Amino acid sequence: MSKELLNELQNAIVNDNESGALEIAEKIVDSPEVEALEALQTSLPRASEIVGEKFETGEFFLPQLVIAGETMVKVSEVLEKGLDEGDRELKYKVLIGTVEGDVHTIGKNIVKIMLKTAGFEVVDIGEDIKADVFVDKAEELGADIVGASCLMTTTLSYQRQVVERFTERGLRDKYKILVGGGPVTQEWADKIGADGFAEDAAEAVTVAKKLISS
User: Is 199 helix (H, G, I), strand (E, B) or coil?
Assistant: First the structure.
C-alpha cells in the first residue's frame, strides 16, 4: 500500500493531475503506513526527474514544467503537515532566488523543497531579483547560505553580479554562495567566486551540507 501511494503521487504530478496529487498527499499524511518524509524524499524528486527528462526529449514543453513545479510546491506544503518534530528541526537558513532578468521557477522550487526536507529553513525571495536585494535580504534574515539560480545563458552575468555585490559591500566572507541552473557549470562557479555549485536538487542538499560544515 505504501509503495502504491508513493507511485500514485509521483504519477499524478507527472500527468498534470494537481487535484489528484493533493488528494494522495492528504492520504499519505493520514496513513500510518507511509511517512510524509519518504514521499518528500522519493516521490517528488522522481517526479521532477521524469518531468525534466520529458522536457529534454521534447515530450513536455515549458508550461508543463511550470505546472509540475507549482504542483510539487503545493504537494510539499500538504506533506509537511505530516512531518515529525525531528524532521522539522531547522538549524541553518538558506536564502534562495532567481537572478535578475530570469523568471524561471521550477528548478529553484525543487531545490527549495529538497533543502527543506533535509532540515534547512528556506526563504524564497522569488524571481527576477536584483543583486542588491539578495544582499539586503541575506542581512535582514540572517541567512547562512545564499542560493542564486538562473536558467538562461543571458542571465549568467547576474549570478556574477550577486557575488560581486556581497564583496563590494564587505560581506562576502559572511555568507556561503551556492549557484545552479541550466547553463551553470562548476567552471563558471569557480570563475565568479561562488562557494558551491549544484547540478540538481539532490546535489544542492549535499553541497549545502558541506558548505555549513566547512
Answer: coil
25-31-35-37 Cα dihedral, nearest 10 degrees: 30
Determine, yes or no, domain membership for 141: yes
Which residue reads 549535499 in cell numbers?
206
**Could you give the CA distance from residue 201 to residue 114 in angstroms, rounded to a whole number?**
6
78 and 137 assigned to the same domain? no
Q: Any residues with CB less than 8 A from the CB of 184 and at least 6 apart, and which?
A: 150, 156, 159, 197
Residue ranges making up the domain that contains 57: 2-82
Q: Among candidates 8, 9, 4, 12, which has minimal Cα distance to 33?
A: 4
Lookup: cell for 61: 514543453
Q: What is the mean pLDDT of each run of 10 residues along the chain (214 residues)?
A: 88 95 95 87 82 83 81 87 66 93 85 78 95 98 96 94 98 97 95 95 86 86
- Can you give the pTM of this predicted structure? 0.69
